[in-house]
Predict the 3D structure of the following.
Amino acid sequence: MRSLCTIMRTILPLAAAAMLAGSAGQAFAQLPAAIAALGETVVATFYATGAQVYECKAGNDGKLAWAFREPIATLLLDGKTVGRHYAGPNWEHMDGSVVTARAAGNAPGKTAADIPWLKLEVTARRGSGMLTPVTTVQRINTVGGALSGTCDKAGAFQSAPYSTDYVFLRK
């Protein structure tokens, strides 16, 4: 049910904006400009839940701090697992199609505990399937995932649970 709630939370504001603006394409203008993908078409949107993994490392100043290491998440559609998200960053659909991307823009999450919203440009593809035509991935509606606090042992790992919606788009 949580997946349905997240989808409704995403779709209803966009649908309302589309009715007011007169087209669904303009509804996406509600996203922060830094992560907008104007002129692109949605291929799929998946709810994801998992963890952001951090490692305790020495910074340039020599002080220990948490550094992002990798995401580990399950991609869901209607409450069913359809893929996974992991280091790379990679998104893998159950049909075997995989995209790798790099950050191209970001906007703050709603609270300090939420990781930023992202726009990622696809840099590589493997397999053939749903994700094959994807050129852009957006991470929106983030909840959690940010890690705060101190670390005292280099090499230690800590995870921060998170959820988000990943929107896969094509040009």
Q: What stands out?
A: Residues 39 and 150 are 43 Å apart (CA to CA). The chain has two helices and eight strands. Residues 2-21 form the longest helix (20 residues).
